[in-house]
Specification:
Elements lengths: L1 E5 L12 E4 L7 E2 L7 H10 L14 E5 L1 H7 L6 E6 L2 E13 L3 H12 L3
Antiparallel strand pairs: 1-2, 1-6, 2-3, 4-6, 5-6
Helix pairs in contact: 1-3
């Protein structure tokens, strides 16, 4: 999940109001640091975006849910951007991108994704 905050007039990012998170079943929600993406986050993103195919995909049954702000806005114009509370008098807008992988047997899916991503 990603929350991107910005000045609605200039579209400049607002430091401290933007973040990226990953929640994995059995783990706490964790903040993803800026910079290179860790292997688990990168793999999950590639699965959700349909970049991978064949043997790179998990065999476990799963579905992708959620959407980017751009996809939501295309379906319902005006739904992709929303205001945040002002900070120090500054008007701030944001958009939220959120995806999830859902499975009938989530523990099996998580184990397989960890294996395919090369993380324990």
């Amino acid at each position: 999940m990603s929350l991107t905050a910005y000045d609605p007039d200039t579209h400049d990012p607002v430091p401290g109001r933007t973040g990226h998170w990953l929640w994995t079943r059995g783990d706490a929600l964790r903040v993803l640091p800026a910079g290179p993406t860790d292997p688990l986050s990168a793999y999950v993103d590639e699965v959700m975006c349909g970049v991978l195919g064949g043997e790179s995909l998990p065999d476990a049954e799963y579905q992708v849910g959620g959407a980017t702000a751009g996809f939501r806005d295309a379906d319902r114009p005006g739904s992709g951007e929303f205001p945040l509370a002002r900070q120090g008098g500054q008007e701030v807008a944001a958009y939220l991108d959120g995806h999830g992988l859902y499975a009938r047997n989530p523990d099996a899916l998580v184990a397989e994704i960890r294996r395919l991503a090369g993380v324990g």
